[in-house]
User: Fold this.
Amino acid sequence: MHQSGHPSLPLLVLGQGRDLATERGVECPGALPAASEPGLVERARVAKAALGDKVFILGHHYQRDEVIEFADVTGDSFKLAKEAAARPDAPFIVFCGVHFMAESADILTAGHQQVVLPDLAAGCSMADMAAISQVEDAWDDLVEMGIADLVIPVTYMNSSAAIKAFTGRHGGTVCTSGNAKAALKWAFDQRGGLQGQAKVLFLPDQHLGRNTAVRELGLSLQDCVVFDPHQPAGGLSAAQVRDARVILWRGHCSVHGRFSLEAIEAARATIPGVKVIVHPECQYDVVQAADEVGSTEKIIATIAAAPDATSWAVGTELNLVRRLATMFPRQKIAFLEKKVCYCSTMNRIDLPHLVWTLESLVLGRIVNQISVDPDVAKWARVALDQMLALPGETAKD
Assistant:
């Protein structure tokens, strides 16, 4: 990893040790990790300039500012993957996000483009909660219960390529938090609609699935059951599954799942006139208590459109909330939950890893390339294309 003329960067090889002093963001001390040394900023600028149009850098909203500074475009996961696909002249796509996002970019981009993830350890705890072997076993359970023919799978964008491919093979669709309502409605319509016997298997975030089914489609909490992959048959009886309309996978976002009703009550008690806005990955009671609910893009747009001096308590990832306060200084923006931190896996993508990636490309070395198996990519693309065919907005999570 040593670059000629530069000191070696303090990076760890995946699976070979752990050093919290260099892998900043792995654990949460209650504040954002310190910024990288200033010299790395210049190295990043020089490397990016040397690569020119050969590299296109994507920066997810949850990335730290020092990484966002070098992004050619920022956004949510599917928007970024589409942006990459729209740049066929760039042979190298550097995705500053997490693993499932880079997989989606590899699926959607052209064959001559190579997608790079600066740190292979930048994963997603939610996506990891649905392993393909577990999902296939769950489908076998549904077959044994005699209801699989009534079930359409819908997987959130925050899932592995293998889960997206499973969804495509079984006639389902991918969704984002911005179009989950349209995706669930479409899925129900494939098996007789909301008034029929249709069922949805929603992967892997139970909270987005529940919030969408109940709040957006008018189903009841009793219409939803949670399938626990660590229990036989998901911990459910055949009767429970037959009576359910939505089978929710037992998964959640490790950040959004921790926002609490108590935090909303505390914000309202301490911030006069505050409006609470949260992401739909939050728990049902938190979403019910909030003033506004929406995807990351919707949160940004809502605050941007608000009158000056509006007070907001924002329930989403800390890096973005801090950035919103800078972007909209005339608003009063606070982080909703003091006990919740930044996304630790997203924060593995830091300036040392980005510099290493770019300088390696300058020297003709492609590091950490993300390449999805062709058969997996084919079926995942089927599910992604079905999402693109849904009515309404499809490019925002």
About this structure: The longest strand covers residues 55-60. The chain is about 40% helix and 15% strand.
